[in-house]
Design a protein that fits this description.
This protein is of the alpha/beta class. The chain folds into two domains: 146 residues, HAD superfamily/HAD-like (Rossmann fold, 3-Layer(aba) Sandwich), CATH 3.40.50; 68 residues. The protein contains nine helices and eight strands. It has a six-stranded parallel β-sheet with strand order 5-4-1-6-7-8, sandwiched between helices. It has a two-stranded antiparallel ribbon with strand order 2-3. α1 runs antiparallel to α4. It is elongated.
């Protein structure tokens, strides 16, 4: 842990990334892609996932499904709609909260911290996942990418959350699974940072960054606040 030069006694709020910090979104997406491929009767169950990983349209965009169908020369509007429906249903059914997250949020709320989510997902997708997992009521503020038009590591969405929470950057901690997008963005604003290593599946990202604290399990997040006290 490294928090030199920061008045840790002033912490009033905790900002969480959503996907792969609060719940395992990558696994849900893998299962959703496999379900679409199975529905189509095709063999390579990981091929559709690789279309999302190109980042041509973005990791969330269903345009990747359209590209996949067109490349297979089987595209039709009806088939595309069916694939999108299957993809959405299987994905949301498989979003599972990490063990220990509810205890972490309960503990932070009881300790009097304000809580927020800042996600690169669109608002509709974010709210659907947070409602489905039962997490939505824990958060005082929820900021999605479409609210600022910017995605992390641009700090605009985090700055908006701080504004709505009515706290200064030095009064908040950010928790996220990406050293580049979450931790780097928090450091730009002068926040304390907690790296949710348990959820990091950012295989193609540079991992050279360093957070103030590393959580190997969700419950380690509370350990950080014990160290602050």
């Amino acid at each position: 842990m490294s928090s030199e030069g920061k008045d840790i006694g002033k912490i009033k709020a905790v900002i969480f990334d959503m996907d792969n910090t609060l719940f395992d979104f990558v696994e849900a997406k893998i299962k959703a892609c496999k379900a679409v491929v199975e529905y189509l009767g095709l063999k390579d169950e990981n091929e559709l996932l690789r279309y999302f990983l190109r980042f041509r349209h973005g990791f969330e965009s269903k345009k990747n499904i359209a590209d996949y169908l067109k490349d297979k020369e089987i595209y039709s509007d009806e088939l595309y709609e069916d694939c999108c429906r299957i993809y959405d249903e299987v994905k949301i059914d498989n979003v599972k909260v990490y063990k220990g997250i509810f205890d972490v949020l309960e503990g932070l709320k009881k300790a009097g911290f304000k809580l927020a989510v800042v996600t690169d997902a669109e608002n509709g997708d974010a709210m659907h996942r947070l409602h489905k997992t039962g997490l939505v009521d824990y958060f005082d503020v929820i900021i999605s990418a479409d609210m600022t038009g910017k995605r992390k590591p641009d700090p605009d969405s985090i700055a908006l959350a701080l504004e709505k929470l009515d706290v200064k950057p030095e009064e908040a901690v950010i928790v996220g699974d990406s050293l580049r997008r979450d931790i780097e963005a928090g450091k730009k604003l002068g926040m304390l940072t907690v790296y949710a290593a348990y959820g990091d599946r950012n295989f193609f990202e540079n991992r050279d960054g360093e957070a103030d604290f590393t959580a190997r399990r969700p419950e380690d997040i509370l350990s950080f606040f014990v160290l602050l006290s």
